[in-house]
Amino acid sequence: MIVLSEDSQRTSGKDAQSMNITAGKAVAESVRTTLGPKGMDKMLVDSGGSVVVTNDGVTILKEMDIDHPAANMIVEVSETQETEVGDGTTSAVVIAGELLDQAEELIEQDIHATTVAQGYRQAAEKAKEILDDGAIDVSTEDRDTLVEIAETAMTGKGAEGAKDLLANLVVDAVVAVHDDDGIDLDNVAVETVVGGSIDESELVEGVIVGKERVDENMPYFAEDANVAVFDGAFEVAETEIDAEVNVSDPEQLQEFLDKEEEQLKELVDQLVAADVDVVFVGDGIDDMAQHYLAQEGIIAARRVKSSELKAVARATGARVVSNLDDLSSDDLGYAGSVAQKDVGGDQRLFVEDVEDAKSVSLIVRGGTEHVVDEVERAIEDSLGVVRSTLLDGQVLPGGGAPETELALQLRDFADSVGGREQLAVEAFADALEVIPRTLAENAGLDTIDSLVELRSQHDGGEFGAGLDAYTGDVIDMEAEGVVEPLAVKSQAVESATEAAVMILRIDDVIAAGDLAGGQVGDDDDDGDMPAGGMGGGMGGMGGMGGMGGAM
User: Fold this and answer.
1) How far, in Å, CA of 393 to CA of 445, rounded?
2) Backbone angles phi, psi at 84, to 5 degrees
């Protein structure tokens, strides 16, 4: 009996496993050379000629044109890592690829994939315990350590030349938005400006609103300003239902216009009565209202983004109001200064000198657009790791030290694991050493000598011994100030293991021949699912598809 259509393709058993493992390894290999302080960059060019130059793992994998479904599962590892902890995306993908490589060797020795998967899970559980035991507690008030963590995240990226300045700005920004509810990085706005050098980047303890005054006659600057935030339209109120007004003579028309002006004047008078100096409006502002606001010396901005309105309210302590009739002095926020300034040729409103800035803005400068974009990515990684450290309060030494320690202890742990799972635990330990090995390769060092020295020092009890990519020496990473949040390493091991196990458990891949013939759930004239629907999202099964073209 024929179940599948004649156009369908099916790969089963070891062929399917081999194909998926090869795809996963290819993804890992594509970002491996970017790892570490001496990692290289990738240039990604799309069909329109747009260029991205970066060594940020998740950015590379997002921009690459990957079709293979198993390869996309590895890409998801980097995206999860980025979402959860903000850094370590390349490490997570490289570990996942090496786990698949080690598993392939075991499968070729007739060890069942589920046995390998079980051993990997046991090893990952033990690895988490080892990392927790070796973690260093950090006080959230230990500014020096927080700066070191931010610097480590920037090392090897476009921002490295000014990492001292940028790391301090990042720490100031995260500490500023830290409150009882946690740390929401949405409250740290990163503004990029092409022009100047990276050293001219600065932190504004307040909000930069991407708008300018609506009227040239309004003041450029307001000191000790009372700030109102209004998310409606500063215009004549419209009726809820459709209505017509019949005007029979010019006097009636004039009365009608005078009444509209009077309503707008009353709205402005309400702001004056509440002693408002600056108003941010989410919708439009009537031309006549702009005139009256300028007459009263009130600075106004219109069509301000909802996110910026919330940021202004949070920074100044204002309450967002939707009806000006309800506005009172209790709804106003306070800012020491509100001023219109030029930023890279654009006029923007700076809300600064607020009492307790719970929303801040980082202005990132750079010589070219590509430089600025890469610095922005480095800063976003740093923001993520500083946030993780402040929330968890635990760090680990960098430079391949945790992975070397994990490999050492997991080999000892393997002896206590019964059955064939023992081989999988040992393979897991070998896979983790891909990180120090890759760090050595990318730095142009001898990988064997570096690994031997690392193992020797860890065998002697030096948990913090890591590889200095600049000198080739094995040194104490904690003393050197190269530290990373515990959450980054734990998440990398966890997500890499889950992805590898999922891929290993697949032994049958089915795809329809007409991949462009419709999506699952589309109905044809007969009400039946189209033949091509089954494989709608599984293009490029025969290989890596568009990967090569993007690289």
Assistant:
1) 34
2) -75, -45
Q: Which of 359, 336, 364, 451 lies closest to 404 in space, CA to CA?
A: 451
Give the side-chain half-sphere CA count within 13 A for 545: 15
- 56 catalytic per annotation: yes
Quote the pTM value: 0.80
Provide the token pair at 210.
Answer: 């991407």
Helix (H, G, I), strand (E, B) or coil at 268: helix
Per the annotation, the verdict on 54 as an active-site residue is no
SS3 49: coil
- Choosing from 41, 56, 286, 392, the catalytic residue is 56
Exposure of 416 by Cβ count < 10 A (0-12 exposed, 13-18 middle, 19+ buried)?
Answer: exposed
CA distance 466 to 167: 22
DSSP 3-state of 277: coil
Catalytic residue list contains 89 = yes
pLDDT at 410: 94
Q: Is 41 among the residues known to form the active site?
A: no
Q: How far is CA 274 from the centre of its chain?
A: 41
CB-CB contact of 165 with 151 (8 Å): no
Asked if residue 286 lies in contact with residue 214, where contact means CB atoms within 8 angstroms, the answer is no
Options 381, 389, 392, 497, the catalytic residue: 381
Strands (E) in 201-298, as ranges, are 202-204, 207-209, 221-230, 278-281
From the candidates 89, 404, 438, 497, which is the catalytic residue?
Answer: 89
Q: Which of 90, 316, 389, 404 is catalytic?
A: 90
Amino acid at 245: V
The edge-to-edge listing of strands for the beta sheet with 202-204 is 188-194, 360-366, 202-204
Q: Report whether 78 contacts 89 (CB < 8 A).
A: yes
Strands 207-209 and 346-352: antiparallel
Instruction: Compute mean pLDDT per 10 residues along the chain, 551 residues long, and list them.
Output: 62 77 91 91 87 88 85 89 87 94 92 92 94 88 89 83 89 88 87 87 90 92 93 75 71 68 87 92 91 93 93 91 86 93 87 85 89 90 90 90 94 89 94 94 93 94 91 91 91 93 84 50 43 38 41 41
- What type of residue sits at position 474? V
* Amino acid type, 481: G
Which pLDDT score, from 0 to 100, does residue 65 have? 83
Residue 182 gets which letter from DSSP? B
CA distance 435 to 439: 6
What are 496's two structure tokens? 């890499």
Contacts of 221 (CB under 8 A, 6+ apart): 337, 338, 339, 340
Token pair of 56 as six digits:
């940020």
Nearest to 382 by CA among 158, 207, 229, 180: 158
The beta-strand segments (E) located in 268-412 are 278-281, 299-301, 320-321, 333-343, 346-352, 360-366, 394-397
Closest Cα partner for 467 from 485, 486, 451?
451
